[in-house]
Amino acid sequence: MSRPVVQAILGIALLSAMDAIIKGAVARLPVLEIAFLRYLVGTAVMIVLLAIERPGWPSREAIVANGLRAVIVVITATSFFYALGQLPLAEVLILSFISPAVTVVFASLILGERIGPRVLASLAAGFAGVALIVWGGLSGGAGDRTSSLLGVAAVLVSAVGYSASNVLLRARAQRDPLVTIVAIQNIGPALILVGPAGWVWLPPSGSLWPALIAIGALGVAGHLLLARAYAAAEAARLAALDYTALIWAVLFGLVVFGEVPTLWAWCGAILIVGSAWTIARR
């Protein structure tokens, strides 16, 4: 395997571990507070890395472009964290796998990367998989149905934001130092979320702080690896690697939370992962 592929796979594994820790934390703290602390810890880590690597002050263009990406990151993260509190971990990850197909569309519109007619078929298959998972999640009571629908909607918002973020990452990775990109990716969201987090703030217990620090550290490490991967390879080529997170999601969900994916979830996963694989072979 090429170095960008290995970096992307390892980055996804670290972010999957972060997701599992977040799922445990959302039962005890508000989503906005967890998101703020995740990026606050990430900011502290990035300040140390900036002091070591000394990439220089970013240009105004870099601040504006990466600042826009920071806004997208906030929307992506908060919607995803919310979904983790509403749905099983594996289902959240499976639903998020529509992002490779969306990434290809954004890569074409923003980066001018060429796509073929199979992208439309891939999108249709991916959303058919989403429909199966939604259908399976509607078998519970009224409260369960509402939670399922809200969770699915949050994942879809997150998937679109994730795709846009990755495409913008590749666009900026050709111009800005990677450490600068990831630094703004943490500092920007921390500044954006400090106010909203203050509205819902609950003091974390002492036992929660190691988990919150781990969330921030894993987030920085995972995104640094992804930044290096997307700087060296096409966004559309790496996007399909996202489905390797399914292995980690099922493992963490089963071992940590005792969650077993339903038959509907597996059927939806086949369609969604199949669509991602089709894109990978383009």
TrEMBL record:
Belongs to the drug/metabolite transporter (DMT) superfamily. 10 TMS drug/metabolite exporter (DME) (TC 2.A.7.3) family. It is a multi-pass membrane protein. Residues 7-134, 150-279 form the EamA domain. It holds the Pfam family EamA. The keyword Cell membrane does not apply. InterPro entries: EamA_dom, EmrE-like. It comes from the Bacteria. This is S-adenosylmethionine uptake transporter. Keywords: Membrane, Transmembrane, Transmembrane helix. It is found in: Membrane. It comes from Enterovirga rhinocerotis. The chain crosses the membrane at residues 34-52, 64-84, 90-112, 119-138, 150-169, 181-202, 208-226, 238-257, 263-280. Its main location: membrane. GO terms for cellular component: membrane.
